[in-house]
Amino acid sequence: MTRKYFGTDGIRGAANQDVMTPATALRVGVAAGGYFIRGDHKHRVVIGKDTRLSGYMLEPALAAGFLSVGMDVIMVGPMPTPAVGMLVRSLRADLGVMISASHNPYHDNGIKLFGPDGYKLSDDIEASIEARIDQPERDVRAASADLGRAKRLDDAEGRYIEFAKNTFPRGKTLDGLKIVVDCANGAAYKVAPTVLWELGADVIPIGVEPNGFNINDGCGSTATDYMCAQVREQGADLGIALDGDADRVLVADERGRLIDGDQLMGLIAGYWQRKQRLRGGGLVSTVMSNLGLERHLQGLGLDLARTRVGDRYVVEHMRKHGFNLGGEQSGHIIMNDFTTTGDGLIAALQVLAVLVHDQAPASTVCHVFDPLPQILKNVTFAGPSPLELERVRTAIRDGEGTLAESGRLVIRKSGTEPKIRVMAEGEDEQLINTVVDEIITVIEDAGAAAP
């Protein structure tokens, strides 16, 4: 079903344009609030945000919508996305909202919704809320005496800081470690440096001066060059790069070399297996994770379960099949012993726990497998999806046959843009480049490519 509002990770768009306007935010508050009002108790919603200028516009609009249906609103200000999931459960709220466009630039914004269990909403619930968004408000508006009240939670930062610290192994500290942490001028700009410092680290914070415009601008997990350089210049033991809402993380070793989410998941899985705390017999990732990770896990007697792209699908598979570790190559790492969604800071703490335990440098500890060459290219198209064309399907089948057992081919349509993503990986880099280029050529020759 084509969605008007919800995409692969909530609602997202250019701020004050299209769907990301105060009017839409108001209707989302009414629709989501109306859906979650069940029973006679006083309902409440937790609203967090990152540091984008447009957050000042969307936060009161969302709050007004929730208040109008009788929900009390608890605003927590700039906080990581996973902190909202945690606070929903801690405060016994009926709903949580994070106002963020994650790793996108400041001029975009988004709305992510969490249920009373702290997890992101399922496709079915989002569809039900979407169906309500354009319905008249009068069906769910509260009586004048039943309107909600709004307040700010002054100790929200402190609650999350203590929560994060308590995920680090009891009795262990970060004493003696020098850590660069890049907060992307985003939601974790206060809490992340504080957690690391209180655990004993010598902290070098960067990306901690948000001004409404500089979130993810040349910093954070999508622009790691400066963080890596600072690790080398400062002689740090580790670099940590979060994104704008701090639900993903990438790491740099003491040499300033970047370590992606696949390596981090492989590291944590092996450590947890040694500690006999890994559940599910492996971990869950998406079709985009490197084949090298899968082979590494097999060598440990563990499985890699793959899902479609999107951390929500990873979480769904984890919950259904009993896994407690999963994530994405991009650095979304979900550890549902602790959190309900990806948490970049807590994932970094688990990496640091291994460094402390092994008493070895990050360059040794964090490089757990050699990734296979992986090529990803995009084709922009106009009109119907080219994946429906028989000549394109034939080219894909031919590519799969060419790679056979020596690699993988993943073709998918973007969930937010008119693009086809063509990814191949395998032992022969020249071969996978050829396979990808041949498929892209067929798509372009079919007349499906946009001018």
Rounded to the nearest angstrom, the distance between the terminal CA atoms is 27 Å
Q: What is the rounded Rg?
A: 22 Å
Q: What is the count of DSSP helices, taking H or I runs of 4+ residues?
A: 14
Judging by the overall fold, what is the CATH architecture of the largest domain?
3-Layer(aba) Sandwich
Helical proportion? 25-40%
Question: Which segments are poorly predicted (pLDDT under 50) over 5 or more consecutive residues?
Answer: none
**Number of E strands:** 19
Going across the major beta sheet, what is the strand order? 1-2-6-5-3-4-7
**Percent of sequence in beta strands:** 15-25%
Polypeptide structure, described:
By secondary structure, the protein is α/β, with parallel strands linked by helices. The chain has 3 domains: about 5-155, Alpha-D-Glucose-1,6-Bisphosphate, subunit A, domain 3 (Alpha-D-Glucose-1,6-Bisphosphate, Chain A, domain 3); about 160-365, Alpha-D-Glucose-1,6-Bisphosphate, Chain A, domain 3 (3-Layer(aba) Sandwich), CATH 3.40.120; about 375-445, 2-Layer Sandwich (TATA-Binding Protein). It contains 14 helices and 19 strands. The chain has helices at about 20-35, 55-70, 80-90, 125-135, 155-165, 190-200, 225-235, 260-275, 290-300, 310-320, 345-360, 360-365, 390-405, 430-445, and strands at about 5, 10-15, 45-50, 70-80, 95-100, 110-115, 150, 180, 200-205, 240, 250, 260, 280-285, 305, 325, 335, 375-380, 405-415, 420-425. The strands form 5 sheets. It has a 7-stranded mixed sheet, with helices on both faces. The chain is globular and about 70 Å long.
